[in-house]
């Protein structure tokens, strides 16, 4: 599919130690080719491309019900990560996030906007800081002695087709100069302000983008936000994009994402 994805495009590159405000970045839309994961026959892996598509039925009836999501879906996501990676243990990084396409008009309470430009949610430094924030000091220190990673479990629950699907970029097509480290400050579920480092991306024609059309609520992407293992450090750039092939009668895309720590025994 031919599409456009917005990239970071400042008048000049910031100084190496600068951290632009992630919520106010200058962006320019660029034409890209987004490959069809279904047509490619699958085979996408966390180790190679940095992402995969899985069949993962869910028992959640109402994703807009915070109690049901917290009581049922978080456990499903953690079980999925454990089964997919063979990790020894998991922990929740943050509360589930529900995003709704801008075509929906006013968003339902508790939801937020789609991420409509090439970005990654965490830098390596932020992943370590999140681990230290979320776990007791002694446990965090012990976990960092072995491999750990952060995985995003992303699912659309509005049904196919998706007007604003999510595209994922093959980590092997990303070069270090493509990255711009940024800073974002947001409110936590408890109402506290939390600041961390994340990444926007400059355009590079070498980037290889992929998406899965017509995702169902029983499918999910799992993609890498951080991995401490050598050779696995690259985060997966991702971005929502407008699907011109989607009929106007399609429901606005609604999705849920859960970020999960995976801890390995060695």
From TrEMBL:
Q: Name one GO molecular function term.
A: oxidoreductase activity
Q: Where is this region: Disordered?
A: 1-20
- Identify the domain of life: Bacteria
Q: Basic and acidic residues: which segments have biased composition?
A: 10-20
Q: What is this protein called?
A: Methyltransferase
């Amino acid at each position: 599919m031919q599409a456009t994805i917005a990239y970071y495009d400042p008048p000049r590159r910031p100084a190496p130690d600068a951290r632009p405000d992630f919520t106010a970045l200058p962006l320019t839309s660029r034409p890209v080719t987004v490959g069809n994961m279904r047509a490619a026959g699958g085979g996408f892996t966390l180790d190679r491309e940095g992402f995969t598509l899985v069949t993962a039925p869910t028992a959640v009836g109402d994703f807009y019900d915070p109690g049901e999501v917290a009581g049922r879906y978080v456990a499903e996501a953690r079980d999925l990560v454990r089964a997919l990676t063979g990790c020894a243990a998991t922990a929740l990084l943050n509360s589930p996030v529900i995003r709704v396409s801008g075509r929906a008009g006013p968003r339902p309470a508790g939801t937020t906007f789609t991420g409509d430009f090439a970005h990654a949610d965490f830098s390596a430094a932020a992943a370590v800081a999140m681990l230290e924030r979320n776990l007791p000091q002694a446990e965090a220190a012990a976990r960092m002695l072995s491999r750990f990673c952060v995985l995003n479990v992303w699912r659309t629950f509005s049904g196919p087709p998706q007007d604003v699907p999510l595209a994922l970029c093959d980590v092997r097509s990303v070069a270090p100069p493509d990255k711009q480290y940024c800073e974002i400050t947001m409110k936590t579920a408890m109402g506290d302000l939390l600041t961390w480092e994340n990444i926007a991306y400059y355009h590079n024609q070498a980037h290889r983008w992929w998406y899965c059309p017509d995702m169902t609520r029983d499918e999910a992407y799992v993609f890498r936000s951080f991995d401490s293992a050598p050779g696995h450090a690259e985060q997966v750039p991702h971005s929502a994009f407008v699907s011109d092939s989607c009929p106007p009668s399609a429901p606005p895309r609604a999705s849920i994402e859960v970020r999960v720590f995976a801890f390995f025994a060695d």
